[in-house]
Amino acid sequence: QVQLVESGGGLVQAGGSLRLSCVASGRTFSRYCMGWFRQAPGKEREFVSGISWSGGNTNYARSVDGGFTISRDNAKNTVYLQMNSLKPDDTAAYYCAADGLIYSSDYVPVADSEYDYWGQGTQVTVSS
Question: Rounded to whole angstroms, how far apart are CA atoms 3 and 87?
Answer without folding.
Answer: 30
